[in-house]
Design brief:
By secondary structure, the protein is an all-alpha fold. It has one domain. It contains four helices and no strands.
């Protein structure tokens, strides 16, 4: 099963959920500026030594945005992709 399906939304206390809450505003900042961010740069801003460790962080954000999209009945762009 993919990480995006295994990870839980950002509201929990797991390390990746806490990091997801920090990462989401960074992704929003980049989207508003219209500037992509590389995984390596995001990892550095979050203090994560290996960008591959973003998998659960970004999966958590994706899960949260997907649930919010369903609740609001509107499309929310995948900032985590």
């Amino acid at each position: 099963m993919s990480t995006a399906k295994v990870s839980e939304p950002i509201s929990g206390d797991k390390a990746y959920q806490i990091r997801a809450r920090v990462a989401l505003p960074l992704l929003v900042r980049q989207a508003q500026a219209g500037i992509p961010i590389f995984y390596s740069d995001l990892a550095e801003e979050l203090g994560i030594p290996n960008p591959r460790n973003l998998n659960f962080v970004l999966g958590s954000i994706g899960q949260s945005l997907e649930r919010l999209s369903k609740a609001w009945k509107t499309k929310i762009h995948r900032l985590n992709a």
